[in-house]
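## tool: complex_structure
## caller: assistant
## args:
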Amino acid sequence: MSSQTANLNAIAAVVRYLETHTPQYTVAYNVIPEPLIVVSTSRHIAFVNNTFCDYFGYARADLIGQSARMLYRDAADFTRTDTHYFNQPAQAPNHNLFTVTYQRADGSYFLGQSLPNELRQDGNVVGYLGVLRNVGERVTAERNLELASSQLHAIFDSLPSAMLMTDLERNILMVNPLLTRLFGYSEADLVGQSMRLLLVDDQAFRKLTAERINTQVTKTQLPYRQRYLKQNGDTFVGETLFAPVQARNGKVIGYGGLITDITNQASREAELAELNARLEQSVSERTAEVEATNAELRDFAYSVSHDLGSPLRAIRNYATFIMQDYGAALPEEARSFLTHIDENAAFIDRITQDLLQYTRIGQKVLTLEQVAMKPFLAQLIRRLGLAQKATLTLDIGEHSIMADYALLEQIFSNLLENAVTYVAPNTIPKISITATERPDAWWFSVADNGIGIEAQHLQRIFGVFERLHLQSEYPGTGIGLAVVKRAIEYMGGTIQLQSVVGEGSTFHFSIAKQQNSVL
Amino acid sequence: MTDNTFPIMLVEDNIHDVVFMKRAWKLKNIQHPLVVASHGEDCLEYLRKTDNAAPGLILMDIRMPVMDGIQCLHEIKQDDTLAHIPVVMLTTSKNQEDRNRSFAEGCNTYIQKPQTFEDLTNTIEMISAYWQLNLLP
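## result:
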């Protein structure tokens, strides 16, 4: 007998059984809303109900007479069920229930269980009747839970921080190896104990239970510092972060905590804080010293230039008186000496005036006002008598800027006076002034056809008392450009100089707009 | 008119300023004699000597040794026999406090000391002309 014939015989046997015991079985079984299958002892399909066909996506004709193997995704599952269900009679109804992976006609699969019932005739098993249950979702959830739980443990144990879980009363439920190591207890010592064991006193424990944990799960938990007690009696500062553990229904059922020993960090921080405080103190001391020194220097410069003024004028007066009263009687040389006395005194007087101007800028409170550049420059040029001394070109538009009038006057008058002073002999000074508006500042340029400044001196000329020429060649106190620079910087600007020796110099400088709007 | 020859008193410790003032006096041909006191006490001493000609005007410096100008002004204005004498503060001080105190003590005017000799002579001329006008009947 071929195996195929045997299979057909087996199927016929079970069908005969069904027809005998349940004459209307095709009707009755089709009414059942569960997938139902009847297989022969050789596990060939004898009958499936409509629900089964629908469930697996097969036509009944595709299934009848076929091996039940086609219903399983994996051969192993088929073999397993064979071993469990069919070669060992079930001892208890659900005893052999287990989950296998079924495969549908379209190749999709699902987790299911079936409970086969033996169909017996005259004491012999003639086949099996099974009802399938799709248990995919439940099994997935269970497996995930198991997986999650094992993952949680793995994570818990491998965390680089000491960690523990407690119930709501702060009884310890779980600790990881780092925590036992940190505190010097064994896991058995800790689990079941109150967290009080790890704290230095009752007060610390009360604090922990009272305030430290925000039970609002949605709130971000903030780490805090807590002194802990080790098994050996040592204490340490631990940075602690506790967060509530929520059950699936949203209820808080306990707390998870991370503890990091930051004793070293804390002491380093304290050291650092002390260092910082000391540094700050010495900086503020030094700043005060520097400020005091600056103020002293300013006062010194002020009083020197102030107190020098009166004797200087006296000297000049006496020289003038001698000249007026006795000049006619004096020899030519004596008269020229008197002139030199006056000139020198006049020069010192100018220096003191310029120095006064320079020291005053630092003490000045900016008084900002709208300055219409065209009339401002016209007036300044008139006052300095520049139109008679030089050829002037103004390209400044109709702009008005916010600036301190007195400082602006100082800047322009010093630059313009320089432009007419530092020219080669027998050259008519040419000066051109431009103004440009930029988003953050006003930019001005004052260009001349003067003697120019050598590149290596460009940086020097803005210093106090920096003179590049002999007094006899070009008069000047060496303070004018320092005043200019200081006044510009005081109004939030910068100054640059381009110069070609023998051709001329151009000063570019800015007056900040932002500074203006702030004040 | 004898009144026109009343002296004008200068209270000034700086000998150069005294020299310049005398020169300005001469240049502007001012007829009133210039009496000089070198500080406040010196000034009061002169004023309280009854045989001294009472000045018709006092030009008072502020910063001086022994007794400063404002103190001297105070003494003059507190003294019923002297309070009528006009006092002009003539000082290098730009200090607003000095100015306020001077007016509070009853000075007639407060003049910044001119920086050049030319300005000094002009100032003297101005002061002199002003007081001359004041004296007209």
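## assistant note: Residues 270-340 of chain A form one domain. Residues 318 and 324 of chain A are 10 Å apart (CA to CA). Handing back to user.
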